[in-house]
Amino acid sequence: VDLGYFYIGPDFIAAANPFIQINRSGFLVKAQGRPTKNIALEAEVKVGRSIDRKASLGGTQTDVQLMGSMNWQLLKNLTVSAQIAPNYFQQFGVGESNVSNDNMLYNLFVNTQHYVKGHLLIQSYGMTNYNTQLQYVDTSWTNSSTQFYWQSSFAFSEGNSLSLMTMMGFNRDDFAEQTADYSFFSQLSYAWEKRHWKTSLGGQLLREAFDTDWYYGLTSLLDVSLGTKAKITLDASCQIPRVKDRQTRFWGRLQWIQQF
After folding, report:
1. How many CA atoms lie within 13 A of 73 on its CB side?
2. How far apart (Å, rounded) are the C-alpha atoms in residues 52 and 56?
3. Residue 257: its H or E element
4. Which of 40-49, 71-80, 91-100 is predicted with the least confidence, judged by mean pLDDT?
5. Which of 83, 118, 131, 236 is the most core-located residue (most Cβ within 10 A)?
6. What is the pTM of this model?
7. How far, in Å, CA of 22 to CA of 135, rounded?
8. How far apart, in whole angstroms, are the C-alpha atoms of residue 23 and residue 14?
9. How many Å from the N-terminal Cα to the C-terminal Cα in the chain?
């Protein structure tokens, strides 16, 4: 069982993780288990509250977020995984927010791995109803979105790897007579990993659905292990718009995990 604290800023963009809920801070409990040799289960409960009170009508919004995941190793080099969030913080518009039990967030993907001239190559193919709009704490579109993504990671040597992720989404705006549009996200990053720490740097290119502008981004991550049972994760990124009259976006994330 893991216990921890998390802090995710209101401007954090969770493009590569649909289950990160922004503008929240609080505590989490995580449990893991293996019912069989080839199946691993994980459950997580987050008790959080809003950081920026302006995002919630009537002050601070407090909620409990539930998440679950399963990893099933079908073959030696093939794994099928699923993540589900049965309830999720939902925002319908400015100043209107609540906890929704109607929109279920899912993420289904297949992982393969093999060696190329002695170097490990890992590839993932997935589908989710995650929408890039979720990075602004708006899950009201999850029933109108389908996202497909591909991620490849190539290990040059022990602890050094290059990763490329591309996500393409098809989105429908239910408030605009079923108007459809697409979203795009791509990230290329390099990671260094040692015994007690891991860091990565990367570049991004993205386009929001129903937005004609493109953004160029820089992202960084630092994981530090404190002994054998504690870990701190720091995330920081910025995105620069192609159009000069738009603002550059900055965000960050802090998470601490203590294992018992």
Report:
1. 11
2. 8
3. strand 249-259
4. 91-100
5. 131
6. 0.66
7. 7
8. 11
9. 6
